[in-house]
Specification:
Helices cover 31% and strands 26% of the residues. It is of the alpha+beta class. The protein has two domains: 78 residues, SP0830-like domains (Alpha-Beta Plaits); 84 residues, bacterial protein sp0830 like (Alpha-Beta Plaits, 2-Layer Sandwich). It has a four-stranded antiparallel sheet. Strands 6-7-5-8 form a four-stranded antiparallel sheet. The chain is globular. 30% of the residues are buried.
């Protein structure tokens, strides 16, 4: 009787990778270079969306491994402390679908802040009842918020998330950007 080799093909997972602080604050990256770097790092189906650090890619690895690999590749190629939050595309779709406020309000920005650290999520969630910074509601690994245009950076939440201690575990995207990522 002949033996048969069993070949296992890893299931590819589609991820959304959100680079924090790209094309703001002096970190200027061309998205074509980002895509090439991530492709060279072993990811497939790499596609960038807009110029603000939104990347779709495929990998057989889990999100934590994708994050570590992407951060290392970007740091090596571009020489900056890369911060990347990674989520399965279907998880991002569910997060957007769960947005608790009217998504399109004239004169307001609708945001989702992705939070990778549960302790940081708890800290930021505590801001939900403070001040008059618009609407803030914690979700599953995210903070949903809506704020009048022009008030984002001066708001309690905006100033808090701008602190360096949150750089490795948070990134914010507006709802319109996330809709484009999911197309």
């Amino acid at each position: 009787m002949r033996g048969f080799a069993v070949v296992t093909i890893a299931q590819m997972v589609r991820y959304a990778a959100f680079l924090r602080g790209v094309n703001v604050g002096g970190v200027n990256l061309k998205m074509a270079d980002v895509a090439a770097t991530l492709t060279q790092a072993g990811f497939t189906g790499v596609r960038t969306v807009l110029a603000s650090g939104n990347v779709l890619l495929e990998s057989p690895n889990d999100a934590a491994t994708v994050r570590t690999t992407a951060e290392a590749a970007l740091q090596e190629r571009f020489g900056y402390p890369a911060r990347v939050l990674v989520y399965e595309v279907e998880a991002v779709r569910a997060i957007v679908a769960a947005y608790p406020f009217e998504p399109e309000v004239p004169g307001a920005h609708s945001y989702v802040t992705f939070v990778a650290d549960p302790a940081v999520l708890a800290e930021l969630s505590a801001l939900a009842g403070l001040g008059s910074d618009g609407k803030i509601t914690p979700g599953d690994g995210v903070i949903y918020w809506q704020i009048p245009k022009g008030d984002t950076l001066g708001s309690t939440l905006g100033k808090t998330m701008g602190a360096k201690r949150y750089a490795s575990s948070t990134t914010t995207r507006n709802l319109r950007t996330l809709s484009k990522v999911l197309r």
